[in-house]
Design a protein that fits this description.
The chain has 406 residues and is an all-alpha fold. The protein has seven helices and no strands. The chain starts with 61 loop residues before the first helix and ends with a helix.
Length: 406
Amino acid sequence: MNVFTPKHHQWKATFGYETIDAYPVLSHPVTSQSIRPCYAPDHMTTAPLIFPNICTGFNQNPIYVARTALATRHSAEKRLQNHQSLVEEVSKNLENSKPVIENLDNLLKEQREALKEKEGGNCELDQDAKCLKTRLESLTSELKDLIAENSRLQDCKRELQAFIRNITVPLQIAQECLNLRESRSKNELVHDQVEQMLLAEAETYREHKRALGLLLEQCDNQQLQGRKIQNELENFIKTVQWIVVIEKSKEGIERFLGSQSNVEKFQCYFEHNQKFMENSKHFRDQIDANMKEAARDISRIWLKTNKCFEEHVTQLLQAKEEIQNYLVQVKDEIFNLERNLKYLKPKEHTRLALQQGEEQLKLLLRTKNNLQSILSSTTNSLVIDSDKCMSMRRCVPISIITGGLC
């Protein structure tokens, strides 16, 4: 091969095709010897991959493909037989489809007639269902009112329980005051007005606590009855809702309305619910009235006892002041008498005076001791009533106990 590289111009680049000459190939037909479906080098030890022919799509040469195509072609007789078979198949299918179509038409007509009859019967069913829905709505409304009433009754019960707990506070204070006053001195252990008021106060608290406790028990029974009616009403409403809303069958509605017991249950539940709600409202009003009455009584006797304490403390202060004045006077008299007896010389005409002075001194000393004992008892009573009892009663405002009901 002669290499030809023309360079007419130094600035012109040299391409590959300019340096290579074409090699002429002899023409011969494509045979199985010249086309190898498996491209593998000689002396290969492993089995090579066989790729299909890109041009024909077969693994063999085109001659084999042409022979195979000729063998698969049909004759004219075979084509007529196939056509005749197709015509017979179509005729047979058409004949078989006629009775099927007629049967379907008859069924469709029957279905339409049944639908018309059902629509006519649905008018009556709609009336019954509408009537049942109306009753169901009324019962549902009654159930909502009953739930609200049970909730109000529960709130009333909580208020009653809180009020009973609050009564315990002044009752304990009254009992503690009575116990503290028992520690007074013997001459001060008198059944005075303060003690009478404390006893009356404690008894009043016990009576109201006992009466409100009975109301609390009745409230529990009332709540139990309300929950029972609510449970029965909810179950009955669920049964009606299943028939009207979910099942929606004519037989079910007619069977339900045809039962006299079911019809009577509507009226029975309605009347029971109305009666219970009236009783519950009356019972709540009764509880409220008793709580207000108890709050007024507690407030009245609490203030009255406090007033008695204040009056008694004032009397004790006055008595203490008087005793202190008497004690000062007695001490002065004792001082003067002892001084005179000390400096007075005993003589025959003064002997009687000295003897009388000594006797008077003994009386004054005895009076002094009595005054000191009474002053100690009065001070002790004053500390108990003023500092201990009244301090406890001042720490608990009665408005907190009564809850603003009075």
